[in-house]
Every structure is written in C-alpha cells, then in structure tokens.
C-alpha cells in the first residue's frame, strides 16, 4: 500500500467515518443491547442474540484449542444455516479470517481458493442438495502438500466433528484485533478462472452493513429473509444478515433459494424485507401467478440486484409483491448504491440510486481515463472508505485495476442520470457487431414488451464475419415467434438496423451461476452450438 493510500484510510478514522469496532466485538455489543431478542430463525430453530454470542465463543474456543489463531485463514463452505453464522462470528472473534466460499463451488474453485489464501482449515456441511462435501474434502486433502484441517457439520467420518468444537469452555482469551485489520475474504464474481480474494476490513464491512440498513430503514421490528447464499456480499452485508443484526432485527434463513421455499417463508415468518437477483425474482413472480393463495402482505421492501434489472421486470416485481422495490448495485470490492424507499417510480425502475456514503467518490471515465460528461456512458470507477485498494496476493492484477489516483476500475458501464447512477451492465458484455457497439440491456427491455416473450437475454456470439453476432435467447410464452418476426417487431420499435438480431434460441430455463445469476458465459456456449 502506498503512503497516500494509507493516509486516505487513516483520514476515514480521523473523520470518524468508521466505527472503531471489529465484527466480533460488534456481536458482543448486540448481545448486550438486544439480549433475548431472536436473532436467527431456521425452520423450527431459533437463536437469541445472547445465545449467538455464547455459541460463537464456544466454537471459537474449540478452534483455538485445535491450534487456530489470529491471521490464519479458514475456508467456510457452508450452506445457509445457523451454523454458517455461528462459524463466521467465531472466526471474527478469534482473528481467523474466513474465506467465504459458495456451496455450489467445486474442486477447481476450492482447491484454487485454498492455495491462494494459504488456508489451514476447511469447514463444510456433510451433504447438501445431494452433493457429498466430504468426498470433495478428501480430494482436496489428497492433492494438497499441506492438507487443511477439515471440520464437518453433520456426519464427520474421519474428519473433525463440528459438534466436538462445542465441548469445553467458551473463548476467554480473545486476541487483540484492530478494526482496520482484514476481517474476511469475499470472492470475486465472474464465471471464469479461480475467484480473486477480496480483503474486507472489520470496520469497513460493518460500516456498509450499517449504512445500507439506514437506507432500508431497518429497525428491531425488521425481519430479513436470507434467500440468496449468505456467503455472497449482497445477502451477507447489504444490509443482509449483518445489517439486520446491527439494529436488533431478526434474520430468517432460507436453506434453498427457490420460490417454493421463499414465498411460504415470507408468509409464515412475517418477513418484511428480502433481497433477490433478477432471475430469482422473475421465478417468484411466476410462482405467485400460479398460486395466489399466499399472504405476503408483511413484505415492505424487496431489494433486487446482482445483475441488470430492466424497467419492465421492475414494475412487474413491485406489482406482484405489492411492496416497494429497491434497486441495489454493488461490488464485493466495495461500492454500494441503492435507491431510496421514497424515490419515485422513474428512479426506482430505471436507476440504481445513489452511493450509501457521502465519502464515496465516483468517476465515470472513457477508455483513456478521462471523465465523461453527465449523461454519457463510460467505465464506473470508485474510491472511498469501504472500497478495496487491491486483491489479496495479486500484485500484477492490482496494478491494472487501480488508476493512478487510487480509483478502483469496476469494469461496469454506467452513467449519471439526474444525480442517480444507471448501470447498463459489464463492459465486457457489450456486443461489438461489425464495429457497432450494442448494449444488451437496451434490447432486452424492448423485447420484454412483446406479448410472446416471457424472459430474454441478448448475448454476443463470436462470428467470423461480424466479429460478434447478436443472439437472442428467449423463455417464450409460445414458440411461434420466428427470427424474422423478432426483427420486424424491433423495426416497429424504431431500432437501428445494426441492432437487429442474427440468431434466435429458445430455452426452457436459464443456466445459472453459483449465486443464481444468469450464466452469460454458458449462453455463449449454447449460442455457438446452435
């Protein structure tokens, strides 16, 4: 870290932007403030704030007895559960850095994450959705020069049983941990290669949870449904699990991210807020259209983020759930923007709102790094109190992802629209067809207005003549729509001729990534095969 960047971080402390608090100490404070309030609900299990504090201390002590200490890393690959939350806070208290792996990741990703982080431990569930994580752990250990200590929730076999960690006294000798030290590693998004490790400090991550909780108007009466995998930044801390705990609310844990789990839980638990990605929100709408017998009137706010949300689907979401839509844009590396609950439809349906912090500095720049005028698209770059200044152990990447002024290059195409941020998607998703640049989200929004189109994705497919051809993937209401019919429809919408599709592919369901986003890489593969 350069001297100027270090000074920047220190200035946030001096300005009291951050609270000088670790995530472990925060749980202690919450247990004192909210005591017997229910913190977590999972099926028929409930945990109070005091119980969560005690259990985290007990698991932390068990890990300490097995040789784990401050600065060590442990990969957590645990599905949504009370054990995930307890394990994370146990590590926060101990100064051990959790690496937040996703349940859907497999050997290639986990082995790479282990090697990059130098993790000494690996915590897993024995089995989840039919997958045997112990077999995965055996492969990891067999191929590792320094096998990690494997801890299993459930049937442990030859590994350390999670339940055994609970035996013995609670953690009595917590190490001194600075709030500016790394508290956790999030994983970079994307669908290629080994995820990059994103170091998040205790203070900055807690700050994000608090500021997003404020924007969502959370309080002790709030009930947050954790529907997406909580190892992901969005449901973990935007405001998610952590933001709800900061105000003494209750977190309802959904173990499987599917509409037939989500909708009943909203009714049964009186959920007031949840966060979904657009693809999952769309599936929930279809579920509600098939069965309108659920009472989900407790829901006040539905956050949607993680991918571009077109205004047509935004309006459908708000109508189907009969609550306020909050668009949210964020990167695990830092910046979070979201609409305000009081914003009008024009802002909520068409933009991602404003940054959560007055200290966020955003520059939208052209290919040469020059700021573009308001209203023009460019690359979104940012620096601020909770945006990272580099990935863990990736010096070469860090040199290219930061500008000379310390702005992080997000790789997102965005513009300012009347003081609100409007994100059009990833720059690498822009289609270059015969030298003309096409924004997929623009066409997707027009196509969704067609009565025969249930859902749509527009993707560029490598093409020998055009460079990239424009392929439209459709989940159709009926399959009578032809490519010519699609082109004629767009001509009627006064779309430029170079934006007319070259290929039409029907699908029964979308291929999804580990966190439920539509997998555009897999769509490109499918488009190439047709």
TrEMBL record:
Pfam families listed in its UniProt record: AMP-binding, AMP-binding_C
Keyword field contains Zinc-finger: no
SUPFAM superfamilies per the UniProt record, alphabetical: Acetyl-CoA synthetase-like (SSF56801)
Source domain of life: Bacteria
GO molecular function: ligase activity, forming carbon-sulfur bonds
Occurrences of domain AMP-dependent synthetase/ligase (ranges): 30-392
Limits of the AMP-binding enzyme C-terminal domain: 442-517
Keyword Ligase: yes
Keywords noted in UniProt: Ligase
Cited PANTHER family: LONG-CHAIN-FATTY-ACID--COA LIGASE (PTHR43767), SURFACTIN SYNTHASE SUBUNIT 1 (PTHR43767:SF10)
Protein name, per record: 2,3-dihydroxybenzoate-AMP ligase
């Amino acid at each position: 870290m350069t001297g100027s960047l270090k000074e920047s971080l220190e200035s946030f402390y001096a300005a009291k932007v951050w609270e000088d608090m670790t995530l472990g100490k925060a749980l202690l404070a919450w247990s004192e403030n909210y005591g017997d309030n229910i913190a977590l609900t999972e099926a028929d299990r409930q945990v109070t704030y005091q119980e969560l504090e005690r259990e985290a201390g007990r698991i932390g002590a068990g890990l300490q007895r097995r040789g784990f200490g401050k600065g060590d890393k442990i990969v957590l690959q645990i599905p949504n559960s009370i054990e995930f939350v307890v394990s994370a806070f146990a590590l926060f208290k101990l100064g051990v850095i959790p690496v937040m792996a996703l349940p859907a990741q497999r050997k290639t990703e986990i082995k790479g994450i282990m090697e990059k982080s130098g993790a000494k431990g690996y915590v897993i569930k024995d089995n989840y959705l039919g997958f045997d994580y112990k077999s995965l752990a055996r492969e990891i250990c067999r191929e590792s020069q320094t096998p990690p200590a494997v801890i299993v929730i459930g049937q442990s076999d030859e590994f350390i049983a999670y339940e055994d960690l609970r035996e013995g006294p609670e953690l009595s000798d917590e190490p001194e941990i600075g709030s500016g030290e790394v508290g956790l590693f999030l994983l970079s998004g994307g669908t290629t290669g080994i995820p990059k490790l994103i170091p998040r400090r205790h203070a900055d991550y807690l700050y994000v949870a608090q500021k997003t909780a404020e924007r969502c108007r959370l309080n002790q009466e709030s009930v947050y449904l954790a529907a997406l995998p909580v190892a992901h930044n969005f449901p973990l801390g935007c405001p998610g699990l952590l933001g709800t705990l900061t105000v003494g609310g209750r977190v309802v844990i959904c173990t499987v991210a599917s509409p037939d789990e989500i909708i009943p839980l909203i009714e049964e638990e009186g959920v007031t807020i949840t966060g979904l990605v657009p693809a999952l929100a769309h599936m929930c709408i279809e579920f509600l259209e098939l069965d309108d017998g659920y009472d989900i009137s407790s829901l006040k706010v539905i956050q949607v983020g993680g991918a571009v949300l077109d205004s047509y689907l935004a309006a459908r979401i708000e109508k189907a759930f009969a609550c306020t839509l909050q668009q949210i844009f964020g990167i695990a590396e830092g910046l979070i923007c979201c609409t305000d609950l009081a914003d009008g439809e024009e802002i909520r349906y068409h933009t991602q709102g404003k940054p959560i912090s007055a200290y966020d500095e955003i520059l939208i720049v052209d290919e040469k790094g020059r700021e573009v005028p308001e209203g023009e698209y460019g690359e979104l770059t940012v620096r601020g109190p909770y945006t990272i200044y580099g990935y863990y152990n990736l010096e070469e990447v860090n040199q290219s992802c930061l500008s000379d002024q310390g702005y992080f290059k997000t790789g997102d195409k965005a513009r300012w629209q009347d003081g609100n941020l409007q994100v059009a998607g990833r720059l690498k998703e822009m289609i270059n067809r015969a030298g003309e640049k096409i924004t997929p989200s623009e066409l997707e929004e027009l196509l969704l207005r067609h009565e025969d189109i249930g859902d749509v994705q527009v993707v560029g497919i490598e093409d020998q003549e055009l460079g990239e051809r424009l392929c439209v993937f459709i989940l159709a209401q009926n399959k009578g729509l032809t490519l010519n019919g699609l082109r004629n429809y767009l001509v009627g919408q006064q779309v430029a001729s170079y934006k007319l599709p070259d290929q039409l592919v029907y699908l029964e369901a979308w291929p999804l990534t580990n966190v439920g986003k539509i997998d555009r890489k897999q769509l490109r593969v499918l488009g190439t095969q047709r």
